[in-house]
Each structure stands twice: as C-alpha cells, then as structure tokens.
Amino acid sequence: MDTQEGEQEPQLVLANKLFLITQPDVDDIEKVRLRDEVQTFVTSNDMVPLYETLVGEGVLSLDQKLMDEMRAKNEDELKKIDEKITDAEENLGESEVREAHLAKSLFYIRIGNKGKALEQLKVTESKTVAVGQKMDLVFHTLQIGFFHMDFDLISKSIAKAKKLFEEGGDWERKNRLKIYEGLFCMATRNFAKAADLFLDSISTFTTYDLFTYDTFIFYTVLTSIITLDRVPLKQKVVDAPEILAVIDKIPHLSEFLNSLYDCRYKSFFTAFAGLAEQIKLDRYLHPHFRYYMREVRTVVYSQFLESYKSVTIEAMAKAFGVSVNFIDLELSRFIAAGKLHCKIDKVAGVLETNRPDAKNALYQSTIKQGDLLLNRIQKLSRVIDL
C-alpha cells in the first residue's frame, strides 16, 4: 500500500504545518524548518490572501516587494482565465465553458481565497450536469472546509453529497465520502460513528488526498478502542489483515491495541504514554486530547475491574505499574464522574465493584422517567386549574 505524503492534497499538508507551528510541544528548530517550508509553499503558489493572514498572525514576516510580485502574478493569471471563459462562452461548447470555470475555481483554491473559491465553485456547479463531476466539486469544497476547520461548511457539504448520491454516483466516490465523513465525525468528537465509517472503508480506502493509509489505520485503531466492545474489537481490528499489514509501522500502536486486548496493563500504559504525543500533535485529535485520554483510561479500568467482585488497590496498582496513590486518585475521579461502577474501601484498601445489571439499569431508568412525567403532569394540572 503506497503511503507517500506527496499524494495528499498539498494544502492539507500545509494546514498541518501551520498547526504544528502553533504548538508549544514542537521545538524551536522544527518550527523554523516548518516556517521555511510554509514560506516556500505560499510563495511558489502566489497565495496572497493566506500570506496576508500569516503576516497578520506573526507566522511570516512581511516582504512588500514579494507581496506586490505575487499580487501582480495573480492579476495576470486571473485575466487569462477570464479571457478563456469569455472565449469558451462565445465560441465553444458547454463542456469547455465548464472547464474554464473550474480552472477559475481551482485558481482561487490554490491561492487560498476561501470566499472567492466557494463562490466560483457554485458558478461551476451551475454549469455542471454529470453527478460525478458535481461530487468532485463537493470534494473540493470539503477540502476547503478541512483546511479552515469550518465544520458548518463540512457538515452542509456532506449532506449535499449524500443528496447527490440519491441521483446516482459511483462506488469509488461513495467510499471516498465515507472517509471524509469519518474524519469530520472524529474531528467533532463523534468517535463511535467515525470508527464505524473507517472500519467500513478499510478494504476500499483510496482517499490519499486527505491522509496516508498509515494515518487512516492510526485513526481507525484509536477510534475503535474507545467505542467497540471486546468481541467486535477482536474481529474487526485486532485480527483485521489490513490493520495487521500496517500497524507495526506506527510507533506504539500495535502494543497499545494488543496489550489492551491481552490484558497486559503495564505494557498498555507504556504504549499509551508513547502514543500521547502523536495524538496531541494531530491536527484533528488535538482539541479532544484530554477527553480521549480519559475515555481510554475508562475503557482499561473497566476491563480490569470486570474480572473481579473485589480487588485490592495495591494489586491494581501493581498490574498497571503505577503507585497506589495514583490509582486511588484516578479511580476516585472516575467514580465521582459516574464512569466506573465501583467503590473504594479506604480502610481495607479494597475496590468493590457494583456494576448494575441491564434489567436493574432499565428499572432505574423507567422509575426516573416516570417521576419526570408525573412532575410534568402535576405542573400542567396546576396551569389548567388556573
């Protein structure tokens, strides 16, 4: 499976570099290198709007001569594109008119002018008949959305794409859309849906414009671990040949997955610590870093406690390779938040599990909902009496 970064949409590679520049965990030498690469990319693509933004944010330094040169090149290129559009409209067919308008859309995308690019994509769409070509325009819009992390634009574009597929569309584009939607779900903390979409696309992945296959497997394993139960995790992830073919290339990921499944908790915590940096420096996962770390710990603590009616805190600390105080503090937080069903007997130094069974949980839920309904009826009756 080819996983070269060059196959990615260059502007999404650029977006990742811009993200890393802002991160305190990235060292200064690396930031200097990233700034040089950003400067080279922005200059070689004459990205005047983005250059102005980056200068305003202090990422790049202003070079007025360079700015004027890039602006002149943009004006010259735009003039040629407009001449082609006029020529196509006056002398050529509908297909050539569409191609000329598409060229203008791609020009605005290339220079980083979000507003003009979205406007021009709408114009191009009005000249487009084929469903497949309309879908390609939606993918361009989605890439703009991911560059700017504009979740409203992404959400609307995904809905539009699904509507287009009701008119037709090929399997390759449908599978591609699943990955886009999966990334959107992951970036908006809907990890369960993201895992389903990623796992559904694991044997048909071709979306190299978003990320490499290695990154796709990384996301698939991370989202699956906190959302799948033990049996489906084994079937769909631990034993999946597509995952097995790649997982060893990604530092700590194989140990992270397998030590959790094999109940090797000390190894799991070591691998987890190694993965933390990768998660923190991932553009899409970074905002959910603390949430994800909590969810993983909930999964692993729950798995450990499921095996026992009661267990000493010392035994649990030893299994995880941490101190008794650490486990005591950790579990008290998770119990208070309702994430773990157990109680701590500090005097005896014992953890006692009190997992509610499904019937009991349903009974409690019914009682609670019944009380709410009675309260509402009482309030309503008072209003009616008045």
Automatic annotation (TrEMBL):
Residues 71-98 form a coiled coil. It comes from the Eukaryota. Signal peptide: none annotated. One of its GO terms (biological process) is proteasome-mediated ubiquitin-dependent protein catabolic process. Pfam families: PCI, RPN7, RPN7_PSMD6_C. One of its GO terms (cellular component) is proteasome complex. InterPro entries: PCI_dom, Rpn7/CSN1, Rpn7_N, RPN7_PSMD6_C, WH_DNA-bd_sf. Keywords: Coiled coil, Proteasome. Residues 190-358 form the PCI domain. Acts as a regulatory subunit of the 26S proteasome which is involved in the ATP-dependent degradation of ubiquitinated proteins. Belongs to the proteasome subunit S10 family. This is 26S proteasome regulatory subunit RPN7. It comes from Lithospermum erythrorhizon.
